[in-house]
């Protein structure tokens, strides 16, 4: 291991970090904490005539296209739908991104479109769960599309030996930004200034996250440079969209020629499904199963966010010594422990819930940051955005199988505890596949130079 002092971050890298700072507001305030339980309460009001914070339990179902759906499972089905759609949309975005002259403009345009959709969540009131469901699907698609381009830019701004460090810094910076806004929203939801109702306080918090996302995206737009297109394989077609679809089909055919890259994507599909389902279900699990109010849930996520800031940096240092591959596997072992502890958590006991939040924070940012940088080593040069679109299809918005399993188990058992326990399988399968992967062979297969520590 080299002891050379790591160079200071460039202005471009700092600008790249700021997009993590910007979009984390959507993930924390909207995607993780507030919107899932809020949409569940709106759905329960539509099904039973009263909101979820009522002492009574809603036992009626929603009726959608002839299907009878549990109001408590609605948000998981919505996320599942968004994920299935993203599996078709995001690879096209990746193929386009590899051919545009400015990834920066594409990323920021998608981000600003997503922030507008997120801002419209302010108007989800009463029992209008349909509007909330549509907005969540569309916002997740724009968010995922912007992240495809964001991840691809990592290869342009960081050398192979620096990517674990730069990726970890970006994740850490994002967790800090998300935590700061969530802290302000905690004050709004708990204090309810100016006589606000709980519903109004939640809606204002949702709007603040959308505005945060939009405003801070200006920083990467101004600081990230436009890099020339590098090595995108020529395909038939007149328009950019035709060439992009052609490249997508070629990539899917050629992926079999990179077996280690394919193995990582399959492993990541499983273990990231587990991570994302834990994130999406945490607030609903805490409120509906453990009996915690909104202020406790926001405090818990704040703990996760601030601890994850340090956890991402710690994982980056561990990876510098032991390599990203082994460090990720160690993180997955901790995730199995997290799920087991979550199953046995007693209801209405705040301290054990906060302890679990600390443990989640330690591994959350680290496993995700290192997965991104590790995968960047397995991508053929000039195909970064396209391959990252496949990666993103297994990322934050694409835990379709995990959320589907979680929703189905809840509907069958009327309890979130067996649903959370079922997630162990995702970490075990993903970890087993990752253990079989040969990282150095995968980097060489992709035509890249292996970093000093892998």
Automatic annotation (TrEMBL):
This protein is called MFS transporter
Q: Does the keyword Transmembrane apply?
A: yes
Matches recorded under PANTHER family: AUTOPHAGY-RELATED PROTEIN 22
**UniProtKB keywords:** Membrane, Transmembrane, Transmembrane helix, Transport
The answer to whether UniProt assigns keyword Lipid metabolism to this entry is: no
Q: How does it sit in the membrane?
A: Multi-pass membrane protein
Q: Which InterPro entries match?
A: Atg22-like, ATG22/LtaA_families, MFS_dom, MFS_trans_sf
Q: Where does this one sit in the cell? A: Cell membrane
One Pfam match, given by its short name, reads: ATG22
| GO cellular component terms attached to this protein's record | plasma membrane
Instruction: Give the GO molecular function terms.
Output: transmembrane transporter activity
